[in-house]
Amino acid sequence: MSHGRKNHGLPLASAPIVPPLPVGGELTESSVLALLWKDLQIEFRTKETLASLLMLGLLTLLILSFAFDPMSELRSEAAPAVLWVALIFAGVLGINRSFLTERDNECMQGLLLAPVDRGTIYLAKVVGNVLFMVTAQALIVPIFVLFFNLSQSLVVLLRLVPVLLLGLIGFAAVGTLFAAVSVRTRAREVILPLLLLPLAVPVLIAGVKASARVLAGKPLADVSQWLHLLIGFDVLFLVVGWMVFEYAVEE
Amino acid sequence: MATIRRLLDAVLGPLTGLIMLMAIYMVFMYVPTDKFQGIVQRIFYFHVPAAIITFVAFGLVAIASAMFLWQGTRFWDRLAHSAAECGMLFCTIVLITGPIWARPIWGTWWTWDARLTTTLILWLIYAAYLMLREFAASGDQAARYAAVLGIVGAVDIPIINRSVYWWRTIHPAVLVTREGGSGLTDPAMRATLLVSFIAFALLLGWLIWIRNESARLQDEVDHLHQRLLSEHY
After folding, report:
1. Do A198 and B155 touch (CB under 8 A)?
2. Are B145 and A248 in contact (CB < 8 Å)?
3. What's the number of CA atoms in the CB half-sphere (13 Å) around residue B96?
């Protein structure tokens, strides 16, 4: 891994990041954190993922504002759908990037050589992707509120937080697994949305439905059915992803 | 093994053809016309068995995928691949016969009913499954990635079904008509459905068999090719 001269002061993704663990490393907090820290550090220095997530999210909001006239009576109907479409499109892009960076300079090899369980790598990547998407959302949602002239109070808007968070975790859980798959295929950028979007249908439906009710001023207890569905989806696919990630990255 | 193979080769095709002819005769000649829906109801005997067979085929994909990740033998991968292709065929039949039946009875080609929507999403997932196999860099990679998707897809189907069901039922349903499931009181109708179902099941078995054999031969050719190359260079 000594041929990384060209990469403009980027830390090599495979730099010694993990303190020597006992052989056959286990799932420990410290190894997840170490892997996560590596991704965050790369992001702090390049800001590429966040910038592209943010731009694509904003552009999608803009395009969809043209499609659904934000001044019409229908805007409150269309608003949650617009928010989720922006979120999903930006999410696909961000998740795709999380493994594209590992391709350069054979970083994936280094990552796989690290003395940690493959499932640990998966969890660290999921946490990283969720963090990037949440950060981008923190800026996209206020702009969305402005664009659509939403007049809900702050309390109502804060109720969106658990809905968005649970949706993003589920989306990242499935997406991270298939990003590792799609990055090694011949049609890398194309294949991820094809795999991810139909699988993430429950997240989209639950997210849009719950957001619509929350924006209509209903309390969270009113959408508990959807929140339970999202929690179930998140837990199930975090476990499945953690178990099968090994086969998705194996050489 | 070779004798079983020859036996299946000789018997499975003609048997499937025979039962299919019988099913077609029963659907068009034997079974009485439905009192309320008229002649179009006969598509039921194609639509419903095809739908059940779709689930059987995709279930087979999931089982073969899990077995492949566990055992890593080519046999399970070939089975998963064949079952996925055949499942796509039956899923397409369901999606074509459904609207043809829905148009005169429900008055619309398509409705976002839970079953219809789930079938459509199923079709999209397994279309992506077959594309993933094509886009993979090597056969070994295709097998592993497809197995991962085969398992995740199967785990996802119940959740998709649940979410789509809630999605529509929270709104007042435009159409509450359920397909004629409960209305099959006539024993002739039940017999026709049974024969039709057997015909579809045999067709699935036969198609998977042919597809699987062709994949096996392909593997053998690849193997010989590798050996020839290694002997000469």
Report:
1. no
2. yes
3. 8
pLDDT of residue B171: 45
d(CA A212, nearest CA chain B) in Å: 12
Q: If we measure between CA atoms, which residue out of B73, B66, B55 comes closest to residue B148? A: B66
Specify whether the CB–CB gap between A12 and A105 falls below 8 A. Answer: yes
Q: What is the DSSP string of A78-100?
A: HHHHHHHHHHHHHHHHHHHHHHH
d(CA A87, CA A131): 13
pLDDT tens-digit series, residues A39-71: 888 888 888 888 888 898 999 888 888 887 766
Instruction: Name every chain B residue with its beta carbon within 8 A of the beta carbon of A240.
Output: 151-152, 155
Instruction: Print the domain residue range for B160.
Output: 44-171+201-214
B46 vs B200: CA distance, rounded Å: 8
CB B147 within 8 A of CB A247: yes
Q: Indicate the helix (H) or strand (E) that contains A193.
A: helix A188-199
Mean pLDDT of the A209-218 span: 87
> Is residue B137 situated within a structural domain?
yes
Neighbouring-strand partners of residue B38: B34
What are B34's strand-pairing partners?
B38
pLDDT in tens, A110-169: 888 888 888 889 999 999 999 999 999 899 998 888 888 777 778 888 888 999 999 999
Chain A CB contacts of B137 below 8 Å = 184-186
State how far residue A165 is from chain B, nearest Cα, in angstroms: 18
Smallest Cβ–Cβ distance between A185 and the set B135, B148, B170 belongs to: B135
Which candidate in A186, A205, A236, A237 is best for mutational testing of the B interface (most B CBs within 10 A)? A205
The tally of domains found in chain B comes to 1
Rounded distance, CA A37 to CA A14, Å?
12
- Residue among B52, B80, B63 nearest B198 (CA): B52
A9, amino acid identity = G
In the chain, the amino acid numbered A105 is N
* CB-count exposure of residue A69 (10 Å: 0-12, 13-18, 19+): exposed
State the smallest CA–CA distance between residue B115 and chain A in angstroms: 14
CB-based contact A88:A199 (threshold 8 Å): no
Residue B80 included in any domain: yes
Choose the closest CB to B148 out of A181, A205, A236.
A181
Residue B84 belongs to some domain of the structure:
yes
**Measured distance CA(B43)–CA(B48) in Å, rounded:** 9
Angle at B184 between CA B182 and CA B186, to 5 degrees: 150
Q: Which residue, among A201, A177, A88, A231, has the nearest Cα to B160 in the 3D structure? A: A201
Domain assignment of residue B119, yes or no: yes
The pTM for the full model equals 0.84
| A236: chain B residues, CB-CB within 8 Å | 155, 159
